[in-house]
Give the backbone structure.
Amino acid sequence: MSSEPRRKFDQDFKRNAVLLRAEPGLYVVEEAKNLDIGKDLLYRWRKERIRNNTRIGNMRKNR
């Protein structure tokens, strides 16, 4: 069993990957394969982005 170092992705890569996911006709499995990442990772980034955007939206409403 080889122990490859864990890859790190910057915020731009994550944001662009999530935005690609929003394109019609593109499946998560296909996109993840194209980006050479796991589909679960893509789902996690999307969930985090939604959570962060909701939190920011709520902060703006409470001003």
